[in-house]
Amino acid sequence: MMRRDRWVALATLVMLQLFVVAAGVHLLASDELVEKKPVPVASPEPPPVPVITAGPVLAAGGNGPLPTKGTLTARLAEALGDPALGDSVGAAVVDAETGTSLFASEAGTGITPASTTKIVTAVAALASLGPDARLSTRVVRGPSPNSIILVGGGDPTLTANRIDPSVYPRPASLATLAMRTAKALKAAGTTRVSVSYDDGLYTGPRTAASWKPGYVPEGSVAPVTALMTDSGKVAPGSRQRVSDPSRSAGAAFISQLKKYGIKVANRTARRTGAAANAEEIARVESAPVYALVERALTLSDNDLSEALARHIALKEGQAASFDGGAAAVRTVLTRLRAADGITVFDGSGLSPKNRITPLALARLVAVASSPANPNLHPAISGMPVAGFTGTLGYRFGKSDSAYGLVRAKTGTLDGVSTLAGVTTTKDGRLVAFAFMADDVPPGWGKAEAALDRLAAAVAG
Questions:
Q1: Name one GO biological process term (predicted).
Q2: What is the pLDDT of residues 16-69, one digit of tens each?
Q3: Domains by residue range for the chain, with CATH
Q4: In 10 A of CB 218, how many CB atoms?
Q5: Which of 92, 127, 171, 275 could cross-link to 359 by cystine, CB 3.0-4.6 Å?
């Protein structure tokens, strides 16, 4: 139900407070205004004036008139020439309902997308896995008596810390898994076990060959493993990542297990394959995929995006690796008829080898926003809102005409700045856009400001 509620926000792109000033009118859950029956009065007075209900506050689906191509060209041409964007700039604006191109400038040229790649991963995850799928972390019985195995299910949001109730979505808890495990062991008369961990769900290297060597040390991403807690961070609020997320998660699980009265006979050890067909003792599950997608887009979460790419690979019959994820994403996009112009080598957009054309990206956003694809809508509702949330929270000032009207994913790498999303024009038409530059000259924030002006020009 939460996904369907968010479609209303998608269609309007503005968080409006609906109010009614006429007495006797109230708002139903269906957003329809209805007339109350007049209440009889004892004193002789003129008959009550009938209440005339207003029409919809906004047209459903953002189906106002299409902006003219000449108008968009006039608005965007000058802004595209901003020297802050450099010499490699592409732009596309399409009608969200039909996918019709409304504006194009170098729109068919592949450009490094940076984190707007996450839109591709998000749409593919929703289409392949389904919005309600969950990622499970399990504990199973080991091959020897009184042995158990912690089995990673590829959920980087699993937390070893106390859950903050304000965090969305609510993550699965390692403490809960330990508590359930201890309860099951004690019920079977076991209070002493040996513990190993299995992170064999993923295969291949833990970092992409095309990634810069500094990504892990600087804290942009953790080594990609099927078993990790808190995105592999060494502590809450820290960017620093542990060198082996699987081993750290296993050690944290043992620590929690001891708190619930289970003695552990050994140090945690890695084991793969032994968990297959083993008896399950306990499990915890992540938030549903639609919420994970929203988190990945709002926070530009690299670790979660890489995990989603591997789960797409598994669902599509590929190896859960960088190569398998890239191949599986293309398979899904092909089914959506949206693969042309999109070539990716990872799920997060950290790879400088990724190439996406602005037209392909704008049309993919349009596909995700279509009423015909309700399962894909979280890819839109998860995008940051201009001036309010996520990576757009500090952009678009209150005096900006696009403040609160643009919902878009940002992308930034060295020399790269991109922005793709949706907005409603001043005439009420929902449009999708992609503005991409991958030869940006030095000067922090200047390219971002130029992209914001382009999005504001589309909003009108």
A1: proteolysis
A2: 333 333 333 333 233 332 333 333 333 344 444 444 433 333 334 457 877 777
A3: 62-130+338-459 (3.40.710.10), 136-287 (3.50.80.20)
A4: 12
A5: 92
